[in-house]
Amino acid sequence: MAVGGISSLSILNITLSKAGNNTTESMEANKGFEPAYLALHRNGELKNRYLTLREMMVDCKLCPRECRVNRLKGEEGVCGSTSTLKISSFHPHFGEESPLVGNNGSGTIFFTHCGLLCVFCINADISHGGQGNVSTVNDLARMMMTLQKMGCHNINVVTPTHYSPHILEALGIAAKQGLRLPVAYNTHGWERIEILKILDGVIDIYLADFKYTKSSMAGKYSAGAYSYPAITKEALIEMNRQVGVAIPNKQGILERGLIIRHLVMPNGTSGSIEAMRWISENLPKDTYINVMSQYTPMHKAFDYPEIARRITRAEYNEVVDAAKLFGLTNLDIQG
Question: Is there a contact between 200 and 243 (Cβ–Cβ < 8 Å)?
Answer without folding.
Answer: no
